[in-house]
Every structure is written in structure tokens, then in C-alpha cells.
């Protein structure tokens, strides 16, 4: 059996989630709804991003009691969020035995300059990124999974699209570049050269890349998959909609059958109202979650 905490195991765990939907949940009841709808994992947190946005103040790691109750309620992997740079919250989550930690911009950052040294942990980490340089910096720190950031809690997919298009365009550029130009690009992107070289050779990130932030409909999920996402994170889109179970099932089906318009048309019917959306231009700069971290 592979030893827990090695790079291969950490990365492999994320690969097993490929093609699936990871759903934010705040209670064991929501976790059961997610599992029954076919989620490949759940993410335990105190409030979904739309509620974090509305509440203001400091958003922290969820109460361990709630996380443990969620772990008891489901058989699928349970992830949980820590604040950027808050390595003690991560120590606590590792102690609780969660399957994955999300060092997330959705919570209030604890450190404005430094992310967690994720190599120190046996539990794997996922981190957000808006472009290739940011993704490779997080991977260099030990992230075994990446998700594009989008703008969480808005129900507006436009930023998720922007970040995924940016990531894929940069990967294509690197792939087609003469090798002697890579070092200068590594310097410009602030990306480790060895990782950039891997991207050039493999034509993809060294770890799986899900899409997150603002996905609210089955069509949004399929759009992100067609743009190249390996899977989907949905938070507010499900539990801030009128019928969470139906919408959760539909988003799972749309993620699986993302290239089949007939299925997409079918699963998009009769879902009740989607979450209310937010125009990105109306968000004050200091409330933009995607700009947290670097
Ligand atoms: O993984 C996440 C960020 O850490 C969230 O699950 C994701 O960003 C949720 O965003 P939204 O509420 O817009 O679906």
C-alpha cells in the first residue's frame, strides 16, 4: 500500500475526484444532500461564500465539532477550509483527519505575504489560482490540486471563465515556446522554472485543476468543463438556490455529460430559482475574494 502523505498519494487523491463536483456544505444534513446528489466530495465550512460576503467581518475555519459531524454523516471525502497562511488551522484540520485542506481566499487571510508550507503536512492541500504563475507558486509550496478562483459567492461565472481561459491560454503559450525562452517567462510569471518546464513538456498543469467561484447552474458547470476544467467546486450556487437537491443532482449530471447538449437541456429543466447573482463591477475592491493571496 502507498504511504500516506507522499506526493504521489496526495496528487492521486485529487485525480480520483476528476470529472466530479465538490460541494460546499455547512451542516451534516447538507452533506447528505450533496452525497445523495452524487458529489465526489464535500467541503465543510461555516457559511457558503454568498453568506460570508453578506455577513462581513472575519471568516475563519469552521468549528471542529461541525466538521466531525459532517465526517460522520457521509462516506465521500471531506475537505475543509483554512485561512491563507494559517498553518495552525491546518494543523487542527490534519489532527481531525479531514481528507483534503483548502487554503482558501473565501476565508479572511491570516497572512498577507506567505501561504502555508504545505509540504510539511501529510494531508493534501488544494489552492486557488487566477493564472499559471499563481498555480505553479502554490504547487511549489506543496498544493496537490488547483482550482481557478472565480469570484466566489456571486453566482456570476464570468470570473471563473476569465481565470480558466487565462490558465489554458498560458499553458498553450508555454507548450509552443522555444525552450530557451522559458527562463525569462519563469522570471516574468514568478513561477519556478522546473514546474514551468513540466507544463511545457506535458501541456497541462502537474496536478488537476478544478473550476470554482460563481458556478450556479448546470450550464455554468458544463461551460467550465468544456473550457478545460478537470472538475467543479460549487458553494453558494446549490444551497442558496430554491431547490438544492434538484440543482445539486443537475450540476453533477451536467459535469459528467458536459459535452452532450441533449442531457444538458434535460437536466436544466424545472430546477426552481437559481441563487441571486451579483454584477462583479458592484463589488468594492476590498471585497474581491479573488485578489486575496498572490
Ligand atoms: O472552493 C471554494 C473556494 O475555496 C469554494 O467552494 C468556491 O469558490 C465556492 O464559490 P461559490 O460559492 O461561488 O460557488
Textual characterization of the structure:
The chain is of the alpha/beta class. It has one domain (7-270): TIM Barrel, CATH 3.20.20.70. It is 43% helix and 12% strand. The protein contains 13 helices and eight strands. Strands 7-6-5-4-3-2-1-8 form an eight-stranded parallel beta sheet. Helix 5 (87-96) links the parallel strand 3 (78-83) and strand 4. Helix 2 (28-37) runs parallel beside helix 4 (64-73) and helix 10 runs parallel beside helix 12 (244-256). The radius of gyration is 18 Å and the shape is globular. The model has no long low-confidence stretch (mean pLDDT 96). Ribulose-5-phosphate is lined by residues 24, 43, 48-50, 81, 102, 104, 106, 147, 152-153, 212-215, 233-237. Ribulose-5-phosphate binds at residues 24, 43, 48-50, 81, 102, 104, 106, 147, 152-153, 212-215, 233-237. Belongs to the PdxS/SNZ family. Keywords: Lyase, Pyridoxal phosphate, Schiff base. GO terms for molecular function: pyridoxal 5'-phosphate synthase (glutamine hydrolysing) activity.
